[in-house]
Design a protein that fits this description.
alpha+beta; 2 helices; about 30% strand
Amino acid sequence: MKRLLALVVFLAVATAVARPQAENINGPDCSGSWPTNMTFVHLKNAGLADNSSIDFSKTKTSPLASERVGRDLWHQVYYVTFTKKSSETIEAIAVHDASLEECSMSGVEVFVVSNHFKPDRK
Protein backbone atom coordinates (compact mmCIF):
# COMPACT_ATOMS: atom_id res chain seq x y z
CA MET A 1 0.00 0.00 0.00
CA LYS A 2 2.87 2.38 0.81
CA ARG A 3 4.40 1.61 -2.59
CA LEU A 4 1.15 2.47 -4.36
CA LEU A 5 0.79 5.72 -2.42
CA ALA A 6 4.40 6.63 -3.22
CA LEU A 7 3.75 5.92 -6.91
CA VAL A 8 0.62 8.10 -6.93
CA VAL A 9 2.52 10.99 -5.33
CA PHE A 10 5.44 10.47 -7.72
CA LEU A 11 3.13 10.46 -10.74
CA ALA A 12 1.34 13.60 -9.60
CA VAL A 13 4.64 15.46 -9.23
CA ALA A 14 6.11 13.92 -12.38
CA THR A 15 3.06 14.89 -14.41
CA ALA A 16 3.21 18.47 -13.22
CA VAL A 17 6.96 18.75 -13.83
CA ALA A 18 7.54 16.51 -16.84
CA ARG A 19 4.41 17.04 -18.94
CA PRO A 20 5.48 20.41 -20.44
CA GLN A 21 8.93 18.96 -21.18
CA ALA A 22 7.79 15.65 -22.67
CA GLU A 23 9.74 16.34 -25.86
CA ASN A 24 12.92 16.64 -23.79
CA ILE A 25 12.60 13.35 -21.91
CA ASN A 26 15.88 12.18 -20.44
CA GLY A 27 17.14 8.95 -21.93
CA PRO A 28 15.49 7.01 -24.72
CA ASP A 29 11.98 7.85 -25.89
CA CYS A 30 10.17 4.50 -25.95
CA SER A 31 6.77 6.02 -26.80
CA GLY A 32 4.77 3.69 -29.00
CA SER A 33 7.06 0.72 -28.55
CA TRP A 34 7.86 -1.52 -25.55
CA PRO A 35 5.72 0.21 -22.88
CA THR A 36 2.76 0.60 -25.26
CA ASN A 37 2.92 -2.94 -26.60
CA MET A 38 3.34 -4.55 -23.18
CA THR A 39 0.55 -2.42 -21.70
CA PHE A 40 -1.76 -3.80 -24.38
CA VAL A 41 -0.59 -7.37 -23.62
CA HIS A 42 -1.40 -6.85 -19.92
CA LEU A 43 -4.84 -5.41 -20.79
CA LYS A 44 -5.50 -8.29 -23.16
CA ASN A 45 -4.44 -10.89 -20.58
CA ALA A 46 -6.75 -9.25 -18.03
CA GLY A 47 -9.68 -9.41 -20.47
CA LEU A 48 -10.00 -5.62 -20.71
CA ALA A 49 -9.19 -5.41 -24.44
CA ASP A 50 -8.63 -7.51 -27.52
CA ASN A 51 -7.28 -6.87 -31.01
CA SER A 52 -10.73 -6.47 -32.54
CA SER A 53 -11.98 -3.93 -29.98
CA ILE A 54 -9.16 -1.36 -30.22
CA ASP A 55 -8.66 1.33 -32.87
CA PHE A 56 -4.86 1.21 -32.80
CA SER A 57 -4.57 4.33 -35.00
CA LYS A 58 -5.79 6.36 -31.99
CA THR A 59 -3.37 4.89 -29.44
CA LYS A 60 -1.38 7.58 -27.61
CA THR A 61 1.69 7.16 -25.42
CA SER A 62 3.04 10.17 -23.53
CA PRO A 63 6.22 10.15 -21.47
CA LEU A 64 5.63 11.37 -17.91
CA ALA A 65 9.02 10.86 -16.29
CA SER A 66 12.44 9.39 -16.88
CA GLU A 67 15.15 9.07 -14.25
CA ARG A 68 18.68 7.90 -14.90
CA VAL A 69 19.41 5.00 -12.52
CA GLY A 70 22.62 3.68 -14.08
CA ARG A 71 25.31 4.47 -16.65
CA ASP A 72 22.99 3.50 -19.51
CA LEU A 73 19.75 2.76 -17.67
CA TRP A 74 16.63 4.88 -17.14
CA HIS A 75 13.51 4.18 -15.06
CA GLN A 76 10.60 5.54 -17.10
CA VAL A 77 6.90 6.25 -16.69
CA TYR A 78 4.46 6.59 -19.61
CA TYR A 79 0.74 7.42 -19.87
CA VAL A 80 -0.87 5.12 -22.44
CA THR A 81 -4.36 5.61 -23.87
CA PHE A 82 -6.10 3.04 -26.04
CA THR A 83 -9.33 3.99 -27.80
CA LYS A 84 -11.88 1.29 -28.39
CA LYS A 85 -13.89 1.24 -31.61
CA SER A 86 -16.85 2.18 -29.40
CA SER A 87 -14.97 5.46 -28.56
CA GLU A 88 -14.47 4.36 -24.94
CA THR A 89 -10.89 4.78 -23.74
CA ILE A 90 -8.65 2.64 -21.57
CA GLU A 91 -5.97 4.65 -19.79
CA ALA A 92 -2.94 3.15 -18.08
CA ILE A 93 0.38 4.05 -16.51
CA ALA A 94 3.33 1.97 -17.73
CA VAL A 95 6.57 1.78 -15.71
CA HIS A 96 9.75 0.13 -17.01
CA ASP A 97 13.51 0.41 -17.43
CA ALA A 98 15.22 1.29 -20.72
CA SER A 99 18.69 1.83 -22.13
CA LEU A 100 19.80 3.72 -25.23
CA GLU A 101 20.08 0.37 -27.04
CA GLU A 102 16.95 -1.36 -25.75
CA CYS A 103 13.57 -0.17 -24.40
CA SER A 104 12.92 -3.60 -22.87
CA MET A 105 15.51 -3.65 -20.08
CA SER A 106 12.76 -4.77 -17.69
CA GLY A 107 9.18 -5.93 -17.77
CA VAL A 108 6.44 -3.33 -17.80
CA GLU A 109 4.43 -2.72 -14.66
CA VAL A 110 0.95 -1.52 -15.63
CA PHE A 111 -1.57 0.46 -13.58
CA VAL A 112 -5.02 0.83 -15.14
CA VAL A 113 -6.54 4.24 -14.46
CA SER A 114 -10.07 3.48 -13.29
CA ASN A 115 -11.11 7.13 -12.93
CA HIS A 116 -9.57 10.25 -14.40
CA PHE A 117 -10.98 13.42 -12.92
CA LYS A 118 -10.33 16.41 -15.15
CA PRO A 119 -10.85 20.02 -14.07
CA ASP A 120 -14.00 21.77 -15.22
CA ARG A 121 -13.30 24.12 -18.09
CA LYS A 122 -15.17 27.36 -18.21
